[in-house]
Amino acid sequence: MGVIHQPATLRRLALASVIANVGIVVTGGVVRLTSSGLGCPTWPTCTNSSLVPTAATAGHGLIEFSNRMLTFVLVVIAVATLVVSVIQRRERPLATVALLGIPAQAVLGGITVLTELNPWAVGCHFLLSMGIIAVTYTLWWRLAHLPLDDVAIVPSAAAILLSRIVAVAVLAVLALGTVVTGSGPHAGDTRNGRVHRNGLDPAAMSQLHADAVMILIGLTIGLLILAIALHLRASAIAAVKWLLVIELAQGLIGFVQYFTHLPALLVAVHMLGACLVWLATLQVLFALRAPVRDSPAVEQKRSAVAVS
Q1: Which of 49, 56, 213, 258 has its CA 20 to 30 A from that of 278?
Q2: pTM of the complete model
Q3: How far apart are CA 3 and CA 57, in angstroms?
Q4: 98 in a structural domain
């Protein structure tokens, strides 16, 4: 069996897609935090007369252009994933959606530049990334886990419902986070000395965001208590525990960054944390569904680690 026909190949490509999409969220944050959002002041070219940064746009232009070039890494991974999925006849719809999300994201990125980093466009740019991450993670999960059709375990309807409420709360927190960002000091760049903000009060938006986080943590604690009380599978309980730990860590980072006046490094870590919270949420949603087992290749790898 050639490498391209091996199930592990497609699974690894799906995981690479998840990692790459999280990575470009972080590098996009670096662009904003270094005030390089308009380092390439037009789109799809860097300037009106050049595809790449010029001497006049060096520095910030190089940072912004480098982030744009990372899109091609995503394209390569997504195309390879789709090709292999077609050859193996597995998960073709998800692989297709993952690929189509990239040009959609590129166009939205262009809109953010052409609107001089309109904070609402920037927020949508981030939220679309969360959508693409959800698709790629779903693809990886379905490739890495197989349903146990012969196991008579009925998922808890109450736990599934509460997990979905938690997921909605996470999305609300992420959306409010973009509003807070749009009202704060890190505009991404200036045009003619003007900082493009959404006009909302940063303190009020931060408080609203913090309130939503507290509600989210409370819901997650409730889900954990319910999972334990219902004696759900250990993997499901562990998934909820990890979500709670990541939420608490993310909340602590947010608290510290707010009272230290939003240092760029902490903001970047907070953006990575947002991706991790979202991934942990997806993990909970899947773990609480019908029981699954790891794919044979994953089981063999885990057994080898245990023996060593």
Answers
A1: 258
A2: 0.86
A3: 44
A4: yes
